[in-house]
């Protein structure tokens, strides 16, 4: 069952750059603070090669999951 979950996660995010994939994986295991740090680093240092709005979307999901709607 764990193998199925791992494969499913891999299929969802394999097309994205490594930093983005790490951030998404951290979100899926509930490590929202670490994921937020990675996404913010991607924005500040332009590490991604991914559209900025996708990163902001992930940051928004993190705030939603944390219950921080005002940030």
Task: Give the helices and strands, then pairings.
Layout: H1 2-13, H2 18-28, H3 32-45, H4 52-66
Helix pairs in contact: 2-3, 3-4
Query: How much helicity do the residues have?
Result: over 70%
Global morphology:
globular
The class by helix and strand makeup works out as mainly alpha
Q: Rounded to an integer, what's the Rg over CA atoms?
A: 12 Å
Which segments are poorly predicted (pLDDT under 50) over 5 or more consecutive residues? none
Estimate the mean pLDDT confidence. 82
Order of helices and strands: HHHH
The percent range for strand residues is under 5%
Q: Kindly, what is the distance between the CA atoms of the first and last residues, rounded to a whole number of angstroms?
A: 36 Å
Number of strands: 0
Number of helices: 4
Biggest sheet, open or closed, and with what strands and sense? none
Explain this structure:
With 71 residues, the chain is mostly helical. Helix content is 73%, strand content 0%. The protein is built from 4 helices and no strands. It has helices at residues 2-13, 18-28, 32-45, 52-66. The longest helix has 15 residues, at 52-66. It is globular, with a radius of gyration of 12 Å. The termini are far apart. The mean pLDDT is 82.
